[in-house]
Each structure stands twice: as C-alpha cells, then as structure tokens.
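Minutes, project huddle
Topic: does the predicted pose make sense with nicotinamide-adenine-dinucleotide bound?
PN asked that the exact inputs be recorded in the minutes so nobody has to dig through chat later. Recorded below.
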Amino acid sequence: MIAAESRSLERELNPWLAAEARFDEAAARLKLDDGMQKVLRSPTRELTVYLPVQLDDGRLEVFTGFRVQHSIARGPGKGGVRYAPDVTLDEVRALAAWMTWKCAVVNIPFGGAKGGVVCDPAVLSEGELERLTRRYTAEILEFLGPESDVPAPDINTNAQIMAWIMDTYSMHKRHTETAVVTGKPLDLGGSLGRQEATGRGCLIVTLEALRKLGMDIENTTVVVQGFGNVGGTAARLMARAGMRVIAVIEIDGAVYSPHGLDIDALMKHREETGSILGFPGAENLDRDEALFLDCHVLVPAAKENVITSLNAHKIRARIICEGANGPTTAVADQILADKRIFVIPDILANAGGVTVSYFEWVQNRQGFYWNEQLVNGRLEEIMVKSFRDVVGYADRHGVDNRIAAYMLALDRVAFALKLRGIYA
Ligand code: NAD
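Predicted holo structure (tokens), as shared on screen:
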C-alpha cells in the first residue's frame, strides 16, 4: 500500500506526465482527432550530438548535447538551452513541447524547441565552458537560425553563453547574425526590459485577475516564493503597484510582516547578509509554513512541484500566479479548483520572458532598438490580451484556466497545421 502510494506520488511529481495529463484533457475537450493528436505529440526533429572538448589540463572529454524542435508550425522553434549533469533527451523533448504551448498561448509567431548539454558547469572553467558552447553550437548549426530555431538562456546558461552561440553561428555564416539567439547582453543586441520581463508579466496578469475578481489593489496581500529573477522582480513590481507583500519565501526560510515588506530594502539586506532572514521589522518563518499564510495572491516563483496533493488543501490564497514552471501538480489542480482558487497557469503567467525574447528577435531583425517604455507597453498589451483570451475561453467552455490555456494553445497550433496541410 505504501509502495503504491509512493509510486502514485512519484507519477504526480513527474512534470512531463503532468503536462501530458493536461494535453490529454485539452485534446479530448477540443475533440481533436487521433491523427492530429499524434502530430501534436510528436517532435518535429531531434538531434543528439557528442562534443569532444579539450579540458584545461589537456585531457579530452566528450559531452552529450541535445536540441529538439517540437513544433515549427507557427514559426521558428524557440526555447532555452540548459546545462546540467542530469539533463536527458526525454526532459528536453517535454520542455520543447511546453515551449510550443507557451508561445501559442501568448500568440507570438514561434514554435517550441529546447536544448541541453549533459555537464556540470560548476566544475568547468570559463574557457572550458566557452569551448563546450562553441562546439555544441557548431554541431547543431543546421538546426539553428533566426528563421528556424532560436535558443535562449535556461538553467545554468546566461547572456555570455548566448554571446558565444551568436558568435560561433556568425563566424560560420560569415556575417553577424544577432537574431539567432535571445537573452544576449544588451551591447550585442539584447533587449531592454528582458531581465524583468517574466516578473513584470506576473504583475500584469495579477492586476488583470484582481480586476476580474473585483478586488482592490491597495487591500491585496501577496506572498512570493523564490526571491530570484522572477520572484524578486514580481515582488518589487507588485509592491510598487500598491500591493502589500507580506511574506517572501526562500530556500533557507521565510520573512513575514503583516504590514508589508520593503522589497528594495529586503534585496539590499540579502546582498549584505547573504540571506533574507533576520530582516529588521520582520518575523522569520519556516519556509513550508509560509506557503499556507492567509493572503490574496500567492506567487510560486521558485521551482516545480511546490503545490501537490499533499499540501494543496492548506493553501489560503484567493489567486495563484504561477511564476515558476510547473509549480502545481495535475492532482493539486483539482483540489485548488474545489477551493475556488483562481489559478493563473504557468504557460500564461510566466510567458512575459519569451514575449520579450520575441521583441528582442524583432528588434535584431529590424536593426532598430526600442526604448524600455515601448518594450514594457507592448508586453502589457500582449499579456493583457492573453489573460483575457484564456479567462474568456475558460468561462465559455466551463473549464479551469489551465485547461483553457492548453485548449487555446492546442487549437492555435492545430489550426496552423490544418492551414498548412501535411507535406507529402
Ligand atoms: P532564480 O534562480 O533567479 O530564482 C529562483 C529562486 O528560488 C532562488 O533565489 C532560489 O534560492 C529560490 N528557491 C529555490 N528553491 C526554493 C524553495 N524550495 N523554496 C523557496 N525558494 C527556493 O530563477 P528564476 O529565473 O527566477 O526562475 C524561477 C522559476 O521561474 C523557474 O521555475 C523557471 O523555470 C521559471 N521561469 C523563469 C523565467 C525567466 O525569465 N527567468 C521565465 C519563465 C519561467
């Protein structure tokens, strides 16, 4: 019995099975025929490459890399490259599909792709990392291109790594091609506003949710889990918009103040002390307990599988804005729905990042750069429209927001495929 329970929890926590469960439900509700479901499930192309790299001590090592294009029906493949010791082709394949749905939800003209290299960047020198990145780029060169497949940063990759990919690609093409990657340094064609885009997107959809539910910004209390790029930005912008951020949860604990935390001061405190804990005027709390604080908005922006069948019944928020990818399991979805919690699903809530990546690609191709106000204004336009599309769809079809987001995405990709027809 205990073994069976732990097996079912293991299945529940598998993010790819969770994405599959949502795909199945959305496809069934859309009454997509079997053939179309098969096409939408299958990746377009997958590549595994073996990368010989000379280490600093003179030894040769061979690393394995992957690039998967899930769908290019609506435009070039778009998706990050992760460097991690345990990355697998299965994981990259699932993440590539995830990108297809995310780009379709916000209706930007990209398909979905993802890449990975099996390595531990923590033990590689800068030179080793550069040689590895360049060789990986050279080996997947036929996949890449502004018109075909555009990588971006993901776990353990950053703007510098994007610069090396861009340079390697450009050297092969004999001209500089900035639009081949996004998330580049600003001085090499990166976009203003990209750094903040995901957290800003969370703010925009949360404001929409408050409006929809008839809630006042000033009386809104917020708990944010994860004080990194997404959570830190979301907390700062939500506080600036007039909400009261009463708790921030990090890996080593949480800080709480019913009067609201000064987020800029909390960032400074963490810079100075290395932790959010011990913030003057706030109470330290256990990180797991803080997730269940009474609040209006909970922003899980740290990692996957935070809200599960084991704890969903304890959540006391009115709105959950999923800054992270996959923070809620499919089983927990049902519990949250029964509690009438309004969930803004990840493929909508955190799509601000890929949206501004799209703007970066557009600016690179135009050779004309936008100011930050323009970037933020256009991001707002897209996030507001996407929120209304998803919530309107949910209302019309009597489904929750997550299934609505998947239905909308599947429908858009299936429609594009139908219009294009199957090339034989
Ligand atoms: P990050 O590394 O900058 O921040 C994550 C933070 O969460 C870190 O400060 C870390 O200490 C904290 N954390 C880790 N485990 C925790 C735990 N158990 N409890 C509380 N805090 C914990 O990463 P990020 O870029 O902000 O990404 C966060 C999530 O958002 C990930 O799921 C990522 O895939 C997703 N996401 C990020 C972007 C983006 O543009 N950065 C876009 C879409 C989705």
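Observations noted during the meeting:
- The pocket of nicotinamide-adenine-dinucleotide is lined by residues 198, 225-231, 249-251, 287, 301-303, 323-325, 350, 353 (CB under 6 Å).
- The two ends are 51 Å apart (CA to CA).
No decisions taken; revisit at the next huddle.
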